[in-house]
Structure formats: C-alpha cells, structure tokens
Amino acid sequence: MKMYKTELKHSPYSINSYAPLGYDATWVLALALDKTMKQMKEMNASVDSFSYKDAAFAQELSKTLLHINTNGITGVIKFNKNQERLNKIWIEQFQEDGEIRLGYFDPEKHNLSKGELTMIPGKGLYGQMVNLRGTRTLLMNH
C-alpha cells in the first residue's frame, strides 16, 4: 500500500481508494481459478470445456473461495461460510478535516454489540452518534 501511494505521488493520477480492493480481488480470483482447475482436472474436466452454465465448475469455484486464506495489499483475505470477506471494518467519522479513522471492528475476534471496539489512541467516539450500516447508533463507554 505504501508503494502504491509513493508511486502515485509522482504520477498525474490521483489515489483511488478502491484500486487496492480491485487488485486483491483479481489475485483471489486467480488463486481460486488455479486451484479449481486442478480439482476439475482430477474430475476429468478442464477449463477448455468451461461454459457459463457449468454448474459443477461454479460449485467447485465457490467451495475453493471459502478456503482462500492469503495476504493481499488490503490485509488478510479469507471468507466465512456465507462467502463474505472476514476483514477489519474501519470506523470512520466525518470531521472538519475530512474523514478521520477512529478504530476498527474485527468480526473474527470481537462482537460490536458488546461494545468491543478497538480505538486508535487520541480519537474520540464514545458518546457520539455513528452510522453503522445505515442505522444511527450511540456508542457508549461501558
């Protein structure tokens, strides 16, 4: 990520905050396709016989994605049984100087409903309204 930002400082292009996610998504798909093709070969099938209506290939690809566990430029990449990425969710707040990163929620280690939130030192959050998935929530220090 540092290298990405450094390169863009000397470029006419601006930083796109979604570019690292796209990069990681491409690598995850490449890893999953590689592993799926190996599994399909064992079943006497190949990528050459692939079609968009190939349910067996789609099922194998989905199963393979569930077992992806790799480091990307956006952090550790792995998925839960619902095929949702298990990654830290940054809690940000719009303040006078723009978006301020306050802390994060780690879905593997914490339960936000119990108030377990990792805070960045020196940043205030408790007692303030925050927007979590479209709902206004008041976080209180316990």
UniProtKB/TrEMBL annotation:
GO terms for cellular component: G protein-coupled receptor heterodimeric complex. InterPro entries: ANF_lig-bd_rcpt, GPCR3_GABA-B, Peripla_BP_I. The keyword Membrane applies. Residues 9-88 form the Receptor ligand binding region domain. The keyword Protein transport does not apply. GO terms for biological process: gamma-aminobutyric acid signaling pathway. It comes from the Eukaryota. GO terms for molecular function: G protein-coupled GABA receptor activity. It is found in: Membrane. It holds the Pfam family ANF_receptor. Keywords: G-protein coupled receptor, Glycoprotein, Membrane, Receptor, Transducer, Transmembrane, Transmembrane helix. Its main location: membrane. This is Receptor ligand binding region domain-containing protein.
